[in-house]
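Thread title: Can someone regenerate the structure for this chain?

I was given the following input by a collaborator and told the matching structure tokens would be attached. They weren't. Posting the sequence so someone can regenerate them.
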Amino acid sequence: LEEVLRWDWARMERCHDYVQWIFPTDEASKFNKRAPLLTRQLQALILADPIAMNAIRRALTKFCDFLGLELLQPQLNDDGAMGPLIIRPACHFEERVSDCWRGGGPQGRGGNHNWLRISRVLHCLRLVSLNDEAAA
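Best answer:
Regenerated them for you:
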């Protein structure tokens, strides 16, 4: 994880197997046969391990930055309640649109492999009960 957290956006775009390692799911990857599976037993171990949960949160922050998004931690509201976790466009969002958000092919139609990455990240977050992060 520490190595991936040091990567620049170009390397994150070029490398196609890191997402399966830092955001494992309970489904075998069609693209990376060596990727780990997040079994129910592993999910329970991760939920019980604050270091593992923090690692997933750190990976999410890095992935959001790659997408041109920023993750804002919940803030205390005027009424004393915690506000929601927010993910919003970052100041460099427009710089990331062509790689991360625009569809492929002529006139920007068709898929973008980063959309599959986003789906995987959301699936992983839900499996380890980071539902607020997934909903943001």
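The chain has eight helices and two strands.
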